[in-house]
Amino acid sequence: MGLTERINKTDKLSYYEGQIPIEYVYTYGLGLEKFFRAIKDQGKFLASTCKECGVTYLPARSFCERCLVKIEGTTAVPGTGTVYSYTTVHLNMDESPKKEPALVALIDMDGTDCRFLHYLTGVKADKVKVGMKVKPALKAKKDRKGHIEDIVGFQPS
Amino acid sequence: MAYQKVAIVGAGITKFVRRAQETGKELAFQASKMALDSCGMTIDDIESVSLGTAPDAFDGVHMKGEYLSDGSGGWRKPYMRQFVGGGTGVFAPIHGWLHVASGMFDTCLVVCSEKMSSCYPHPQGAFKTIFDHTTEQALDPTLIWIFALEMNRFMSTYGITKEEIAQVSVKNKKNAMDHPAAQLPMEITVDDVMNSETLAWPVNRLDISPASDGAAAIVLASEHASKRITDKPVWIDGVGWNLDTAYWATRDLSYPRYVEKAARMAYDMAGVVEPKREIEIAEPYDPFDYKELHHMEGLQLADRGKAVEMLLDGVTQRDGDRPMCPSGGALGVGNPIAATGLMKVIEIFLQLRGEAGKRQVPGSPRCGLAQAWGDLMQVGTVVVLRR
């Protein structure tokens, strides 16, 4: 089997630039629309439970992927949870260093079978532990737009 | 079920580099030509083509299968593109196997080509769009977040340290010193890994595989066709693939259930009853050092939380009892996404034929396995090979 030598220096290569001139306008969909309206208007976390298998999804979904059946209705859950895992992020997307490392966690959400990916706030990295109880920090109602960033992050409870 | 037996009869691989002058098409051509030349075949002998390549966004071309078809020998042939993210490199040969095993074709050229360097300033920009656009993208996640979260959970669940995991990186980058296609072969120490830049704790720079350009290809043939081509066929005796939920955050991150399901599918087909005893050599997917251990457990090659003991005992070294990633893996040879998985298949092919040169493991193994993993850390793809 042959192997070829290949150029390794990038500065001698010619190149040209390109881009994809597209933006996206997404719908929330039938399940997430309810979830984000409740966050915006009431500061509540809406979950939905599959009647077939009993799995509770958060954010609310309109169907169960396990049973492939429709899910009707939603129930509010407290929005509190437990840190399942966490990381301190040191770099931005383009590999430039962040001014302050960001704390990111996966949170086991109480009363559900799901986890949230979000920032941790109001806590130093060396104080974070797997198993730590947390609660959500929401923006003031007037600043909420029905967006995942209406949740500023999760903080120790 | 009645399948045609399917053999790998030839293989080719380009050098993996951070930025190749060649286009993705040209990389595909070079690997395809090498694979055909290695077994004395021409494109006229090929009845079908299976192409694997990862996200269209890497190239900014939204018909990447067709875009790469000329370099892959697809001209006026039954041609099919496969894509399951990082799992693609083992998924494409599985599709090639289906083409031949079904009896539809007697030969199939399987090509995996990836050019990540076109994506500027970094392919992470393309990876961002794999996250859910409503609940996750606004948080500005990178792929490294999810690996950091998974690695932390793996370490927390089993009480494994970063220093222990770093030994995977030390081993694989050293193994790559003997691989002529390798991008990052190096002799490093655990301290080097620990002292390298923190990207997202616990992931440091040397815990992680690079972005790469490269291509790999293999030729598949049915049993009767293989007799005209080679007297050293390597048989694809088992294939398996499995997909978990796209809601990655809700999964058990300490154990890859989908890899277990893919492996059991392949073992059942190959008649492998005791994987720990029967799989003599393996190439688990290792884009991050902890993933080699994580995948060994999913593949049933180690008990849960115990793969690290095999590593520390030297069992997974190239001259150990159960060599893992003797090629140097994604960590050492490089990680041009789709091509990486096929590079792993090729390594087992060469090792079983006794043609791995300086990388040859002792003991003349008869049965090995290659595995890849990808999408939103949710797919496992496995092939079991025997000579």
As residue ranges, the low-confidence spans of chain B are none
Q: How large a portion of the residues of chain B is in β-strands, by DSSP E?
A: 15-25%
Outline type of chain A: globular
Helix-strand category of chain A: mainly beta
Radius of gyration of chain A using CA atoms only: 21 Å
Query: Biggest interface, which chains?
Result: A-B, 49 and 56 residues
Q: Mind telling me which CATH architecture of chain B this is?
A: 3-Layer(aba) Sandwich
Strand order of the largest sheet of chain A: 8-7-6-9-10
Please state the overall shape of chain B, judged from the principal axes of the Cα atoms. Answer: globular
User: Termini separation of chain A (Å)?
Assistant: 61 Å
Main beta sheet strand tally, sense and closure of chain B: 9 strands, mixed
SS-derived structural category of chain B: alpha/beta
Q: Please give the radius of gyration of chain B in angstroms.
A: 19 Å
CATH superfamily of chain B: Thiolase/Chalcone synthase
> What name does the CATH topology of chain A carry?
OB fold (Dihydrolipoamide Acetyltransferase, E2P)
